[in-house]
Amino acid sequence: MTTKDAIQALGDYLLQNQILTDGMGVLWQGQKIKSISENGEVVTQDKTFWIKSLKPEYALDAAYRRKFIDELKEVKKNPHKGSLKVVDAVISVNKLAVVYEAPTAIPLEQEFQRDGMSMYEVVQIMLPIAKALDHFHEMGIVHGDLNMTSIYVKPNGAGVLRGMGIHKQAQWILGEGVLPFLPPERIRYKKVLHQGDCYSFGMIVFHLLTGRFPWDAKLKEEAVLPLKEQNRLLPVSTFLSRVDVELQASLMQFLLAEPTSRPKKCMKLMEVLGDALVREEQTAEIPIIDPKVLERAKKQVAKLDEELSVLAKKIAAREAKLAEAKHNWKTTKDRAEKKYEETMDVWNDKMEKSKKELDSQKEEAESPWSKVTSFFSQNKQKEQQKRIQSAEKQFEELEEEYNVNRQKSETKFTDAINKADQLLQNMQRKVLKDVRPLRLEQSKLEEKLLALGEIHPKLLGFRAKKPFSRADVIVGKAEIEMILLPKGSFMMGANPNSRFADEDELPPHKVSFKKGFWISTVPITQAFYHAVTGQNPSSNKEEENPVESVTWFDVIRFCNTLSLRENLSPAYEIDVDDESEIRWSKASNGYRLLTEAEWEFAARANRKHVFSGGDDPDLVGWYQENSEEHSKPVGQKEPNVWGLFDMSGNVWEWCWDWKGPYNDRSAMDPIGPPEGLGRIFRGGSYLNDPSYMRVSYRGFERPGNHLPNLGFRIGRFAK
Prior knowledge:
Layout: E1 2-3, E2 9-10, E3 13-22, E4 25-36, E5 41-54, H1 56-60, H2 62-77, E6 86-91, E7 96-101, E8 106-107, H3 108-111, H4 119-138, E9 151-153, E10 159-161, H5 184-189, H6 194-210, H7 221-229, H8 245-254, H9 267-283, H10 291-366, H11 368-376, H12 378-455, H13 457-460, E11 470-475, E12 478-485, E13 489-492, E14 509-512, E15 517-520, H14 526-533, H15 552-565, E16 572-574, E17 582-584, H16 596-604, H17 617-620, E18 652-658, E19 667-668, E20 679-682, E21 699-701, E22 710-711, E23 715-717
Helix pairs in contact: 4-6, 4-9, 8-9, 10-12, 11-12
């Protein structure tokens, strides 16, 4: 509580502590004012905010005010987790201010090590910043003054950006900025474009990696600008004894004097940095990541996995209740149908017997002999008429009783079905009500896990939806995205305690890979197959659906054709005299089929789910019950945590290996037996039940055969 005379306020906010001052204004820590009593006592809310108060000249610039208001609306409407969340603004005649959620973070300058940081630490900090900048650039919003004071570091090592939404695109900027990080066009002409942000981003990465700027530290500020304008900046190798060539080239592109010559997206640099990190990890003799960081991340992952496991059990328990209710509903319905049928069978028998009796009496009366005897005997005739009348009356009474009982039986049947339906609906509503918050909590935990995966790629095996390295393969108008999976190990095969485990999925055994490999995020589509081969053999023809009805040999030829188009060495040598003789050249950099082990490694994604991406088949894949027995466009269901779609369901996928038994020995880069009954395919399809979608299930087919539910995806070795 503070007295009114002693407060420093801005709009509805009490300014408490000054965090920093820069060319645009002052950043404060403060709280929202709740009330002011008659005696001048000020009560504030508990929540803390950061308030960036701009210099008065910005508020007095009418054009800037309009841009400021418009951009803040856009930033609030389309936020990004890599940037501080804008919650409010203060707008008056001579005041402009932005109100952010206060992060639990420290300034990057405080975290920065003067002798430079590791590539891993730089990726940790700058990956969210790159994503945030690219996000806002697409909206036409620039930062304009990106420097070390604009970035803060969270406890998990991830960076968060401050300052979006307070600068105007392609307009004059009044602030001075921090000279080392300013692009030359900003210094000379004070003009802001998103390419300027890319320059500043590159300079920050350079500074973090080297602890220096790309010029002699003894130079005065006025001497730096000509160096920037004339592209005379020193390369990274000047300051680092060992540097990745591709990283150096990419970084210097970001620092080119001409804005239009720079890359347009900050993520381009992060992708190159990520690739360099992977290459460094593959050759490093000592761990890249600080052991303390590793240990802390391991504990976080273990905790999240445990929480997710508890949630999964809760959800499973509630879904088990629903399954039980469905079973009871079906049992009740079957019993009601059986009771109704049995009752009606009894009455139908009675009616049939009565009808036969009546027909028999009429037939007897109509017989020639009966007519003759009736002619001579009046009594006989009367007796016959009485019997017929009696039979007709009995039939009518029975028919009436039949209709009454049929109505009763139908009512009982309908009541039983309605009651069963109501009970099922009630249980469905209850389970949905119970499961919805659990699913929401599960989703939030998954997001945390994915965030950890982005920050700790080596530790977590690229848990993120999008690992750092990805590439687009484009042929004509058709496109396939590929991601780089790291080298690593996993347990291949089914859990022996699983009731679904087939004999050929056992025993589980450790498999390791010497190096990473690229994999397409979706099965090869019909459009992409047609673009490469000029053909589409699929039975269900839809361009965005997976190609199918291809033989294993068709796939081999496709891979080689695509490799030649991309100027890569083909992976397969095909015997000209016998095209069934295929040899795989492992030194090749061309496109190829995945091995069975690679496929299962990719599908599992370091998780223990039944299917690739989860335990609910409806969420992750297309199968017999939800597909209408037709393939579907790729990428419509949930991916696994590595961003791979349709690895369970839609279409089966050919692999390289011949079918053969597992053994219990560990294996390095296994490729299957030299021969077998058929080539392996994996993943299940739109024509199968979910048991075939399990990540451990193994199918096989002769390589010359084709099926309407069998397609493929491609891979290639990492460099």
